[in-house]
Amino acid sequence: xxxxxYGIGTYKLIEDSVLRKVVSxxxxxxxRLFDTAQWYENEALLSQILTEELPKxxxxxxxVMVVSKVHPRNHGYENTRSSxxxxxxxxGYIDMMLVHWPGMNGSDPASMPEMRAGTWKAxxxxxxxxxxxxxxxxxxxxxxxxxxxxxxxxxxxEVLQSEFHPRFHQREVRKFCKTxxxxxxxxxxxxxxxxxxxxxxxxxxxxxxxxxxxxxxxxAIQKGVVTIPRSxxxxxxxxxxxxxxxxxxxGERDMMEIDSMEDGHRYCWNPDLL
Length: 274
Fold this sequence. Notes:
With 274 residues, the chain is an alpha/beta fold. Helices cover 41% and strands 11% of the residues. It has ten helices and eight strands. It has an eight-stranded parallel β-sheet. α1 (16-26) packs across α2 (43-53), α3 (77-91) runs parallel beside α4 and α7 crosses α8. The longest helix is centred in the middle third of the chain and has 17 residues, at 112-128.
């Protein structure tokens, strides 16, 4: 299974009025990928909104793809299976279920390999039962991925979701994904609004007559990265989604200028510590 290269994130979108406006704004623009998680506590709400909004656009559940993730506190075979089945109950099925993090802060490192193996086994079984269409991981490093390859019985994960933006290219992880046929999915593509004001982004935006946010999203998409920006503002969501449909392509010079921003900076937690 392959995910489309553009979707929306729903982290912190827990109010009906906010999430409904976001979903309604992007469906007419062809957005069909929605990223949620047990941790976000909005799976049931997103399901309800999709059920009510999709028919207004002559769409059905099968026209969209839902990505969800197993909460780190639900690591281990039994917890993963029961919590994933609850996620499935909201949507009928989950298109792509990921392991959200390889562990939790404060977890015993010695016990985590066994816990991760149990988590993966549960997801493999649920995929075999048809309740989940695809399985993958999130925030796994090359070390975590190498460990997983030692116990998986169904091949590599189909997707790896991790932080990705011009300041943090994830070169080693993306090389591993390319070698093993794993689709790479990037979150925080806008760098928590820290990247848009930067001179390189502003220059590329001006040269192409697009917004700085659209520059950042096009840069990621043109690298073949599944990109899931998040905003609670429907207008911003439309602006972001237009980067997917407006036909503007960044040139080689543009891509190189954005590439040059790389400095290894993370905006989110470092999974190397887990």
